[in-house]
Write a structure and sequence with these properties.
The complex is a heterodimer of chains A (292) and B (354).
Chain A lengths: L10 E9 L4 E10 L4 E5 L6 H8 L6 E6 L8 H4 L3 E4 L11 H11 L5 H9 L14 H13 L5 E5 L7 H15 L5 E5 L3 H4 L5 E6 L2 E7 H7 E6 L1 H8 L5 E4 L5 E6 L3 H5 L3 E3 L3 H9 L5
Parallel strand pairs in A: 3-7, 3-8, 5-6, 6-7
Antiparallel strand pairs in A: 1-2, 1-4, 8-9, 10-12, 10-13, 11-12
Helix pairs in contact in A: 4-5, 5-6
Chain B lengths: L1 H6 L8 H4 L2 H15 L1 H33 L4 E3 L5 E3 L5 H7 L2 H18 L2 H17 L2 H4 L3 H4 L6 H41 L4 H6 L4 H32 L4 H22 L6 H14 L22 H5 L2 H5 L5 H23 L4
Antiparallel strand pairs in B: 1-2
Helix pairs in contact in B: 3-4, 3-10, 4-7, 4-10, 7-10, 7-12, 10-12, 10-17, 12-13, 12-14, 12-17, 13-14
The chains are: A alpha/beta (292), B mainly alpha (354).
Chain lengths: 292, 354
């Protein structure tokens, strides 16, 4: 275990509750995020991901206990924002701003901003200091925003759907940059996204959120030991069902795919073909019936 | 592996840290407002001033052409009855014949012309400030850029106060400078005409007029304007931070409906004679205080004697302008404005753009 994980947690939430006029966005969510992790917060639309992040960032009032880097985001937000940074969405950089102005401004107000670093990140992009944000493509706006944020030596970085609407080249580049040039064991990154497959390999931890509750919270390395996918023929299906699969779906030619939680792989391999499920498979299995 | 990593010294903080003081941060916030509103704060007053100069130039040409037609008999009659013969306007003769009193009156006339010529940037300023305040906390929510500003270590108080300062100090200062430039531009323009007709611009224009005094008076009046504008700035910022859509409609309709309600109650006999005081002290104060010369500012003009030479210079005299500070209107409005600005800060802190 790395030393960083033994310290105080970066985020500790107990019983988070947030009700909007028509629905309950957070319904007693509990979670804990340690330092030096990259956590994927994953859930279907309307599950409460963005609400949870907004609570962490002190952007909305809520009920329950929440501790972010030792501070309460409701009352100590100004102080907290020196150590926390976030990218909320691809389109939030002010459209009138010039690239140069954005850099000047952040350098002027952020005590942890390193201008040289930011300029280095921008050096091999097509961005021109005189361009306005509204003249940039969506992908270039994200490049600029990412360069600004990565030059800030924050302890917690929150990314809410950072690559929404980007093409695959920009998406790959985004996460690669983040991993190579930014992340280290002093930093913590929380990401929400719909593109589960693309971030799967960079996450250290994963949290599934459904109907305002955290339904799965595990380290990526534990997922393989915990979940097994089994491909069984019709004759073995009943035997397999007795082991209590969390999910099953039928394939052509009488075969069935079942997902098991906590059943040893050795037990299952006697019944058919086994494999470690991907995050997307787990997601689909866990969220079954959400939109029904 | 990790043991090694743990003993590594903390990565040195960027040198940025020491250089950032609250005052500098506020300076950057003001600069940011200026960048976004360069068009309204800087160019609009300058363009208004330039437009006034162009129109003046056109007016002068028109006057010259008309005068050439009129002065067939070649003389202009002065106040003391003597007449100056001018074939094609010899202005040099004109000043040499003027008495002390007449020079003073001439100065007054020029000063009044200067005030009118330089008033354009101020007229534009009022509209710029009004719509700036209305959009200041609304536009950033509409385009969601508020999430970018909130991702930086900037408190809602400093941010909103930087917008207040931009509205009541930065924009008026820039408009005042544009206005002073216009004033001098106008004098230069008229000087050229005077020179062309053989007159001495110094004795005819720059001597009798008081452009420098007027400029200083304009600048000195800014703090009083700032205080006076507070209730409107506060009300508009509050609407801007609160409205989910159409801030203009809310900002204008709510006070007007309140006024109509009061008038209705008075008509029914529920309340006494309060409709006009309500309009004057609430509705108009909330909506029109960004206009520098509303009827209430003119209270002090009752003490200006327009029959005495130099009246134009007392129009904006600091003593007169600062007499506004003695009025309850001024301070009542300022307190209400400050309260609404505080409300705008709280609204910005908790408004959720889901």
């Amino acid at each position: 275990m790395s030393a960083a994980t033994t310290g105080a947690p970066v985020i500790q939430a107990r019983g988070l509750r947030k009700a909007y006029r028509t629905k309950l966005a957070l319904d007693g969510a509990n979670f804990r995020i340690e330092a030096g992790r990259i956590v994927g917060l994953i859930g279907p639309n309307g599950a409460g991901k963005t609400t949870a992040l907004k609570a962490v960032l002190g952007l909305i009032p809520f009920e329950g206990e929440l501790d972010v880097l030792g501070r309460d985001p409701r009352t100590e937000r100004d102080d907290l924002m020196r150590d926390v940074c976030f990218i909320a969405d691809v389109a939030v950089l002010p459209r009138w701003m010039r690239v140069r102005e954005a850099i000047d401004f952040v350098a002027g107000v952020h005590p942890r901003f390193d201008r040289a670093r930011c300029e280095r990140f921008l050096a091999n992009t097509q961005l021109n200091p005189k361009q306005r944000v509204r003249e940039l493509s969506k992908g270039m706006i994200v490049q600029l925003h990412l360069a600004l944020v990565m030059a800030i030596d924050a302890r917690l970085l929150v990314l809410d759907e950072p690559t929404l609407g980007l093409d695959i080249l920009y998406r790959k580049q985004f996460y690669q940059r983040l991993l190579e040039d930014y992340f280290d064991d002093q930093k913590t990154i929380v990401i929400t996204t719909h593109q589960v497959e693309e971030i799967e390999h960079i996450l250290t931890d994963v949290m599934f959120i459904r109907d305002g509750k955290v339904v799965l919270d595990a380290a990526m390395e534990d997922l393989g030991g915990r979940f097994t996918e089994l491909l069984v023929n019709a004759d073995q299906a009943e035997a397999a069902r007795r082991l209590g699969p969390v999910d099953e779906r039928s394939l052509p030619f009488g075969k069935t795919v079942m997902l098991f939680d906590g059943v040893p792989q050795a037990t299952l391999s006697a019944l058919g073909e086994t494999r470690t499920p991907g995050l997307a498979d787990l997601f689909v299995a866990t969220m079954r019936g959400t939109y029904a | 592996m990790n043991a090694v990593a743990d003993t590594l010294p903390e990565t040195p903080r960027p040198s940025n840290a020491a250089a950032i003081t609250p005052a500098r941060r506020f300076g950057w916030l003001l600069r940011r407002e200026f960048w976004e509103h360069r068009g309204g704060f800087l160019w609009a007053p300058l363009v208004a001033g330039a437009a006034s100069l162009v129109l003046s130039a056109m007016g002068i040409v028109l006057a010259i052409v008309a005068a050439r037609g009129k002065i067939q008999h070649g003389e202009i009659t002065l106040h003391d009855g003597t007449s100056v013969a001018i074939n094609g306007l010899d202005l040099g003769m004109l000043t040499s014949r003027m008495g002390h009193e007449e020079l003073a009156r001439l100065g007054d006339g020029i000063d009044l012309t200067l005030i009118m010529a330089s008033g354009w940037p101020f007229l534009v300023l009022t509209f710029v400030v009004f719509f700036y305040c209305l959009g200041a906390l609304y536009d950033e929510r509409r385009d969601r850029s508020v999430l970018f500003w909130k991702s930086l270590p900037l408190s809602d108080s400093e941010t909103v106060l930087s917008k207040v300062a931009s509205a009541i100090l930065v924009a008026p200062l820039l408009a005042t400078i544009a206005s002073i430039l216009t004033m001098f531009g106008f004098l230069v323009l008229v000087s050229l005409v005077v020179l062309f007709y053989g007159g001495n611009p110094y004795t005819l224009l720059w001597g009798p007029a008081s452009p420098l005094l007027l400029s200083v008076q304009y600048l000195i009046a800014i703090p009083v304007y700032a205080l006076w504008a507070l209730p409107t700035v506060g009300w508009l910022l509050m609407c801007s931070a609160w409205a989910r859509s159409k801030p203009f409609l809310w900002a204008v309709v709510v006070p007007l409906l309140a006024g109509i309600l009061v008038a209705w109650l008075e008509f029914l006999g529920v309340v006494g004679d309060i409709t006009w005081p309500f309009f004057r002290n609430v509705v108009l104060r909330a909506l029109t205080s960004v206009f520098p010369v509303t009827f209430m500012d003119f209270e002090y003009l009752k003490s200006v004697d327009f029959d005495v030479p130099g009246a134009a210079r007392s129009l904006m005299s600091p003593a007169g302008v600062y007499r506004n500070l003695a009025s309850l209107d001024m301070w009542g409005g300022a307190v209400a404005g400050a309260a609404m600005i505080f409300a705008a800060i709280r609204l910005r802190r908790w408004r959720d753009e889901g």
